[in-house]
Amino acid sequence: MSTSEQAAAGVAPTAGAAALPLPVLEIRDFSISFATETGDVKAVRHVDLSLAPGEIVGLAGESGSGKSTLALGACRLLRPPAIITGGSVIYRGRRVGPEGVEILDLTAHELRALRWREISIVFQSAMNALNPVLRVEAQLGDVIDAHLNVSREEKHERLNSLLDMVGIPRARLRSYPHELSGGMRQRIMIAMALATDPEVVIMDEPTTALDVVVQREILAEIAELQKELKFAVLFITHDLSLLLEIADRIAMLYGGRMVETGTGEQIHHRTAHPYTRGLLNSFPSVRGPRRKLAGIPGSPPDPRDMPPGCPFQPRCRFVKSECATVDMQLLPAEVEDPQHLTACPYVKVGEVEPAGAATPATIREVL
Amino acid sequence: MDDPVMTANDSTATDLGPVVLEAKGLYKDYKLGRGPKASVLSAVRDVSLQLRRGAVVALVGESGSGKSTVAKLLAGQERPTSGEVLLDGEPVHHSGRRGFRAYKSEVQMVFQDPFASLNPTHRVRYPLERAVRLHRSELGRQAVADELVRLMDEVRLNPAEEFLQRYPHQLSGGQRQRVSIARALAVRPRVLLADEPVSMLDVSIRLEVLDVIDHLRERFELAVLYITHDIASARYFAGETLVMYAGEIVERGPSEDLSQSPAHPYTQLLLAAAPDPDRLGAPIDERLAGSARQAGSTPTTTVGCRFSSRCPLADDHCRAQSPPLQAIDEHRAAACWRLDLAAPNLVQRQREERSVALPQ
Q: Number of C-alpha atoms within 13 angstroms, CB side, residue B220?
């Protein structure tokens, strides 16, 4: 697999090797299960994902695909019944050094030092993530107190500069969360995530609850901050069309499995996996000629009841008997590009297009 | 990609079918607080719309724009402060329980959250059966049972008997929403008010749910109001689109025309903000990044154009006087004083055609 090969090459840097930066966060063969009375539910299965310094990687998937579980699990933020059943998560920040640390081996104390200082998270619902009875000032201040050793004056300065950074008037430090609009609350969450100057910021559906206009403003804000502060972003969302615009690289998750990774351009124009194509065909577009739209028939998979082999089989137009035994290894989708990988060994780039005609869920042209 | 689908009769879409449900000059004010400090929030201001048989009208706006309040007014769940709702041209008075029930048997609603709109302690059968029994008491036991199966078939939940026996938690989001649609349909309404029916669902199944609604619209000649924040889906799903901002309709027109050549600055902003894969790799719009600092919550002012605080074209006139919804052509209208700047092409064409005179 290319990601692990790069990593292997990087651990012992050779003079001739290309100057590929070591991934700042590298998730390898990662699996997470939920223990239930009726047996383990495998939420994430053998996932590889790496994040280069300053890169924006999009993690796309529907509800139940395991995208949030993967990200939270990588920070060891999941509690039982969730169990990490295998794999490794290596963090290599500037403060840690190129050999990196294995997050899965850290003690509680070491984890505390890593979290937020090195890897921070913007949670989905700012409404629930902020404490309603504390002023913004106190909540942002808490983060700084807990993770940075600074004087009161420095803290105050930091608070002000954080608000400037996310474009909120300083006076709002004295506000309670309910006094802020949804967009402002989300900006406070972003300020909080950036308070300690981390190298990796995980954004779990940061704009999902917002209106499109505000959503775009927040995205522009994130893009600007990312350019300035050079942190790496793992951007989790169900909205693939959004990722296509902002992400350097996109990883598609389905039923706990990685099904395709590639650049936005590859995912959009040279789609390899039938699921990716199905998702792309599910978005009505406001621009260009009206095309035929087709959703994906059936429902997202139930993690308690996964088919053997490829999890997408029951909804796939190209399904055949071999799909039940496919091992879901990521293979190069195009010979000339090792970055574009797909888990489907049968469908080739170009074959998934054009979609729509054969699928039952076609929106009729109204009137 | 695929064959471009541009239906030529789009612009005449609204001419089809008689008007079933109509809103005329609806206002809804909510009083905030009590005593001398009380203030008034006008959630809906002067909204008029017509739902025609067999046609979908989309009501597009951001949260807080008043679109759900319009749905509640139409559904009879809220009384308008002024203005009226007409069913088949007759003003609606929900006097008493019986009158309200009669109205409900014509006008039904589908809500946004299928997780909250179904009682978790009842099997799917229960809400459907109840609706059928209440509104169609003439049916016998067997006829009711047949009707339930037929309803499940209509929303493509097969096998029907099995789904009727399930509890909501045993269904996926898309299946639940289809149960909600079946429940709405159980009373054989003529109007369906769908308030963000797919926004809580996974992207891959949204189309199928919309497709179910569309199939039912066609089959039962339903008049559908499709409320959404997603202007792209309105383009595909509805013949006519109304854009709401801060309680007012700021633009209306055939969906395709409106989305391809928006007239009102707010509609333009909304369209510019919609994610667009074809804009791939281009930096996120800088102009919007700039406006991020000023954009805030919905304005509280009732003087002047409500969009003026965010509008790049606003002048003193805009801030002083509220613009009326004025015709651009036969099918389109926008509420903007500065249309000649916002949409010069449209205004130019309109002047040349001289079909409708602008009340300048």
A: 22
To the nearest whole angstrom, how far is the Cα of B336 from the nearest Cα of chain A?
19
Chain A residue with Cα closest to B275: A242
Q: Which of A216, A293, A354 sits opposite B288 (nearest CB)?
A: A216
Backbone angles phi, psi at A307, to 5 degrees: -70, 155
Q: Which residues of A186-221 are buried (b: 16+ CB within 10 A; e: fewer)?
A: bbbbbbbbbbbebbbbbbbbbbebbbbbbbbbbbbb
Checking if the pLDDT of B224 tops 60, the result is yes
Q: Which long-range contacts (CB under 8 A, 24 or more apart) does A178-181 make?
A: A178/A132, A180/A136, A181/A214, A181/B296, A181/B297
Q: Count contacts between A and B (CB, < 8 Å).
A: 191
What CATH code is assigned to A51-73+106-118+198-367?
A: 3.40.50.300
Compare all CA atoms of chain B with the CA of A216 and give the residue at the minimum distance. Answer: B273
The 10s digit of each residue's pLDDT in B261-290 is 999 999 998 888 887 766 654 544 444 434
**pLDDT, chain A, mean:** 83
Q: How far is B73 from chain A (nearest CA, A)?
A: 23
- Rounded-to-integer distance, Cα B192 and Cα B238, Å: 13
Instruction: Kindly give, in sequence order, each residue whose CB lies less than 8 Å from that of residue A320, ignoring residues fewer than 6 positions away.
Output: A346
Residues contacting residue B115 through CB under 8 Å, at least 6 positions apart: B168, B173, B176, B200
Q: Which helix (H) or strand (E) holds A222?
A: helix A212-229
* Residues of chain A contacting residue B228, judged by C-beta atoms under 8 Å apart: none
Q: What SS3 class is residue A232? A: strand
Is the pLDDT at A357 greater than 50? The verdict is: no
* ipTM, interface predicted TM-score of the complex: 0.75
Contact A300 B284 (CB under 8 A): no
Where do the domains of chain A lie? 51-73+106-118+198-367, 130-197
Cross-sheet strand order for the sheet of B39-52: B39-52, B19-32, B82-87, B90-91
pLDDT tens digits, B5-15: 333 334 344 45
Cis peptide before A345 (omega within 30 of 0): no
pLDDT at residue A119 tops 60 = yes
State the average pLDDT for chain B.
83
Distance CA B312, CA A261 (A): 40
Quote the pLDDT of residue A39.
Answer: 80
Determine the Cα–Cα distance for residues B271 and B95; give it in Å rounded to an integer.
42
Cα–Cα distance, A308 to B317 (Å, whole number):
67
Kindly report the nearest CA distance between residue A317 and chain B, in angstroms. 14
Distance CA B127, CA A234 (A): 43
Judge: B277–A211 Cβ closer than 8 Å, yes or no.
no
Name the 3-class secondary structure at B316.
helix
The pLDDT of residue A278 is above 70: yes
Chain B residues with CB inside 8 Å of A296's CB? Answer: 204-205
Please report, for chain B, the start and end positions of each structural domain, with discontinuous segments joined by +.
Answer: 16-256, 302-360
**B window 291-350, beta carbon within 8 A of A:** 291-293, 295-297
Q: 């609850």: which residue's tokens?
A: A209
- For the domain made up of B16-256, the CATH class stated in words is alpha beta
Q: Which pair of tokens denotes residue B304?
A: 């002047």
Q: Are A260 and A312 in contact (CB under 8 A)?
A: no
